[in-house]
Amino acid sequence: MLELAGIIILGILAQWTAWKLKIPAILPLILIGLFVGPISTLLSEDGTKWIEPIWNGQEGLFPGESLFYFVSLAIAIILFEGGLTLRKSEIGNVGPVIVKLISIGVVVTFFGAALAVHFIYDFSWEISFLFSSLIIVTGPTVITPILRNIPLKKHVSSILKWEGILIDPIGALVAVLVYEFILVEGGQDFTQTALIEFGKIVLFGFTFGFTFAHILAFSIKKDIIPHYLLNVFTLATVLGVFVLSDIFALESGLLAVVVMGMVMGNTKLPNLKELLYFKESLSVLLISILFILLAANMDMNDLLLIYNWKALILFGIVMLIIRPLGVTLSSLGSGLKINEIAFISWVGPRGIVAAGIASLFGLKLASEGVEGAEYITPLVFMIVLCSVLLNATTARLFAKLVGVFITDSEGILIVGASSVSRIIAKYLKENKRHVVLVDNNASNIRKARALGIEALEGSVYSDDLLNNIELSDIGYLMAITGNSDINKTAINKFKKQFGEQGSFRLISADEMSDPERNPEEGLFSHTDDFIKLTEVSRRYPNIHEIVLNSRDHYEGIIEISKTESEMVPLFVKSDTGDLKIIPSHSQEVEIKEGYILVYLGKEIPTKEEQKKEDVERSL
Question: Phi/psi at 212 (nearest 5 deg)?
Answer without folding.
Answer: -70, -25
